[in-house]
Amino acid sequence: MDTSRRDFIKNTALAVAGSTLLSNDLFASPKKIVRIGVQLYSVRDAMSKDPRGSLKKLSDMGYLHVEHANYTGRKFYGYTAKEFKKLLADLALQMPSGHTVMTAQDWDTSKNDFTDKWKYTIEDAAEVGQRYVISPWLDESLRHDVDGLKRFMEQFNKCGELCKKSGMKFGYHNHNFEFSTKVGDSDLYDFILKNTDPELVAQQMDIGNMLGAGGIALDLLKKYPGRFELMHVKDEIKSDTGQGMDGYDSTILGTGVMPVKDIVKAAKNIGGTSQFVVEQESYQGKDPFDCVKIDLQMMKKWGF
Asked: How far is Cα 252 from Cα 275, in angstroms, rounded to an integer?
């Protein structure tokens, strides 16, 4: 994830692991229907200019599922929930998940309830057909405030209850700071996992974001089996631009330093993962659409 992506998420909030030997148990048959999608931030420039044409390209190359990263003013890429749902349906696409930042300010303490703004967010997610509402950020002011973090994790669980009423589930998506930030004797990611109810709050593991901060996807899958319902699938290379996250840039699957094939297979079989979302944010001079097309081909080559 590059600087622009971090800025994008912050603005929305305000308006090498080496190969690891895996036991045969990790490759047992999955219990859930596996879906492969693409995070639309991968083709963000094209989506901002021509959402319909961009979605058609993704559909034509074989994607059946997408994940949004643009919900502003009760619109997805400029479309109302009802309009965007029809656009997706016309292109034989579904959107099981989407990214919308939830902040502490989305809870109204005077009413002991969520704000109308956040209720509308959940309402629109249900209308467009999402199964997961994923918050991809945690405000910097909370990261070292243990009491504030505990209250916010309670808000996560309450949002899970709110989503459940609409047949959905709330979720959290990690970056790098969760692994470099300490909360007591453990890191922030451990704190989040230990203080959220897995029946109410899903985890979307981003296997690339964590790499430079010391997060090892395979280790986490073994430490918390069954906790990662969704995954952002990435490969990483050492960055020579100085703009990547912790010195790494994402790249085409299978061409970087990560054991992605092992990770996704373990996720499917011990991680509880059924939603695999390809995300590539840097392209090494290649066209973003060409990149995500190859990414999909690689996932299929690996048996997905």
From this structure: 19
d(CA 288, CA 255): 15
Q: What is the largest CA-CA distance in the chain?
A: 53
Q: What is the pTM of this model?
A: 0.90
**C-alpha triplet 172, 174, 179: angle, nearest 5°:** 130
**Residues 115-166: tens digit of each pLDDT:** 999 999 999 999 999 999 999 999 999 999 999 999 999 999 999 999 999 9
* One-character DSSP codes across the chain: --HHHHHHHHHHHH--PPP----GGGGSPPSS--EEEEEGGGGHHHHHH-HHHHHHHHHHTT--EEEE--EETTEETTB-HHHHHHHHHHTT-EEEEEE----GGGEETTTTEE-HHHHHHHHHHHHHT-SEEEE----GGGTT-HHHHHHHHHHHHHHHHHHHTTT-EEEEE--SHHHH-EETTEEHHHHHHHTS-TTTEEEEEETTTTGGGT--HHHHHHHSTT--SEEEE-EEEE-SSS-SBTTEEEESTTSSSS-HHHHHHHHHHTS---EEEE-----TTS-HHHHHHHHHHHHHHTT-
Q: Assess whether pLDDT exceeds 70 at residue 18.
A: no
So what's the architecture of 3-11+29-239+254-286+294-301 in CATH?
A: Alpha-Beta Barrel (3.20)
Identify residue 72 by its one-letter amino acid code: T
CB 132 within 8 A of CB 96: yes
In this structure, are residues 208 and 34 in contact, taking their beta carbons and an 8 Å threshold? no
Query: So where are the chain's domains?
Result: 3-11+29-239+254-286+294-301
Phi, psi of 131 (to 5 degrees): -105, -20
